[in-house]
Amino acid sequence: MKRLILILALLMAPALPALAVQPDEVLADPALEARARDLSRVLRCPVCQSETIDESDAAVARDLRLLVRERLLAGDSDAAVLDYVTARYGEYVLFQPDASGGNLILWLAGPAMLLAGLGIGFGFLRSRRAAGEPPVQALDAAEQRRLDEILNR
């Protein structure tokens, strides 16, 4: 019985995000509903932060889903809906913000730091290789006698 419950839970797991959209939110026009679902997958829930508004059960995610559907019913294009939501909530609600303006710094910072780290590491290894090992000096007679005394004890 426990195995059956576990198997059913595992089979239902992929469908769980789809359960966030309530039946009263679904549009009658399948084409508009498909557009609304596509837009809901690129908008981040401001509360959950790691979920789309399509997956989130938060109240603000429901409000955003309704807002997206309202704008689509008003005749807005997908880009106009995204612009409207972004104007109200900021670029934070976009899972992939545009690579322009201030965001360009964030998009380029990761690769720039990687290249800088590789350059520093390469320079460090090259300087170690160039320095080589220090030359070995032979012991003078007094040091050799002292070493022999210590070893003979």
How would you sum up this structure, described in words?
The protein is an all-alpha fold and 153 residues long. The protein folds into two domains: 12-93, Helicase, Ruva Protein, domain 3 (Orthogonal Bundle); 99-129. Helices cover 59% and strands 0% of the residues. The chain has six helices and no strands. α3 (59-73) packs across α4. It is elongated, with a radius of gyration of 32 Å. The model has no long low-confidence stretch (mean pLDDT 81).
**Percent in helix:** 55-70%
| Shape category | elongated
Number of domains: 2
The CATH superfamily of the largest domain is identified as Cytochrome C biogenesis protein
Report mean pLDDT, rounded to a whole number. Answer: 81
Could you give a short account of the major beta sheet? none
E-strand count: 0
Number of DSSP helices? Answer: 6
Structural class: mainly alpha
SSE order, one letter for each helix or strand: HHHHHH
Q: In percent, how much strand structure appears in the residues?
A: under 5%
Text of the CATH class of the largest domain: Mainly Alpha
- CATH level-two architecture of the largest domain: Orthogonal Bundle
> For the terminal residues, how far apart are their CA atoms?
77 Å
Output the CATH topology of the largest domain. Answer: Helicase, Ruva Protein, domain 3
Report the C-alpha radius of gyration, rounded.
Answer: 32 Å
Poorly predicted runs: none
